[in-house]
Amino acid sequence: MKAIVVIGVSTGGLEPLRGIVAGIPGTCSSTILVVEHIGQRKSNPPVLLALAGSLHVPSANDHDMTEPAHIYVAPRTTIGFCGLRRSD
User: Fold this and answer.
1) Which helix H or strand E contains 13, and what residues bound it?
2) Is residue 18 over pLDDT 90?
3) Residue 4 forms beta bridges with which residues?
4) Could you tell me the pTM of the whole model?
5) Of 14, 20, 80, nearest to 42 (Cα)?
């Protein structure tokens, strides 16, 4: 069973989060879940995080199977992750 890492950031936390993602090696086999309080700011965290690092950052959707070496960002319309399932 691979590790799951959960990171929560508040408004303004996207830049530090990009720095964290940039430091994650491409050989990382953990699944990373990110929840961001966005407020009124318009941004696209999955795209920005994908550009910052080497892991895959797909859009997270209900009932998706999580995969190792992926970063999943909670959709704006939710408080967290609902319905994601581990692949292992």
Assistant:
1) none
2) yes
3) 31
4) 0.81
5) 14
